[in-house]
């Protein structure tokens, strides 16, 4: 186990990638197989990709107070006339998209806590 980025970097030197270290750590902590963990990771990735796509398409919260901003951000990015780099804007847009899907009580992946996912 590791508790700092420095420890993570040091420990990851013994693996092909940080991802391999994380899978091994999960295997040790849960006694689950590598195949099971990888399948859960794949499922979580698909859920996140779907929630991003849904948010970018445009959603409204149950109360109607939030929503639509990820769609606006996507249109802004597509214009190509921005000061910051495109990856920064896409990351922000994707975070807003997931937040909006979360606000409409849609399916998102919020590991380990859902509380931070929509903030």
Structural summary, described in words:
With 119 residues, this protein is mainly α. The protein has one domain (15-103). 62% of the residues lie in helices and 0% in strands. It is built from 5 helices and no strands. It has helices at 5-12, 18-30, 34-57, 69-79, 86-103. Helix 3 crosses helix 5 and helix 4 runs antiparallel to helix 5 (86-103). The two termini are 28 Å apart. 16% of the residues are buried.
Give structural attributes.
single chain; 119 residues; mainly alpha; 5 helices
Brief account:
The protein is mostly helical. The chain has helices at 5-12, 18-30, 34-57, 69-79, 86-103. Helix 3 (34-57) crosses helix 5 and helix 4 (69-79) runs antiparallel to helix 5.
What order do the helices and strands come in, and which of them pair?
Layout: H1 5-12, H2 18-30, H3 34-57, H4 69-79, H5 86-103
Helix pairs in contact: 3-5, 4-5
The fraction of residues in strands falls at under 5%
The helix-strand sequence is: HHHHH
Q: How many domains make up the coordinates?
A: 1
- Rough shape? globular
Radius of gyration: 18 Å
- Count of DSSP strands: 0
Mean pLDDT: 90
Pick out the low-confidence regions.
none
State the major sheet.
none
Instruction: State the helix count.
Output: 5
N/C terminus separation: 28 Å
Structural class: mainly alpha
Residue share in helix: 55-70%
């Amino acid at each position: 186990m590791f508790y700092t980025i420095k420890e993570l970097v040091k420990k990851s030197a013994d693996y092909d990638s940080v991802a391999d270290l994380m899978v091994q750590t999960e295997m040790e902590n849960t006694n689950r197989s590598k195949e099971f963990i990888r399948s859960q990771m794949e499922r979580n990735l698909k859920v996140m990709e779907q929630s991003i796509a849904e948010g970018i398409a445009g959603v409204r919260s149950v109360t109607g107070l939030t929503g639509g901003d990820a769609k606006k951000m996507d249109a802004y990015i597509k214009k190509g006339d921005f000061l910051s780099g495109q990856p920064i804007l896409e990351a922000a847009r994707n975070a807003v998209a997931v937040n909006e899907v979360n606000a409409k009580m849609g399916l998102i992946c919020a590991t380990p806590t859902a509380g931070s996912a929509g903030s």
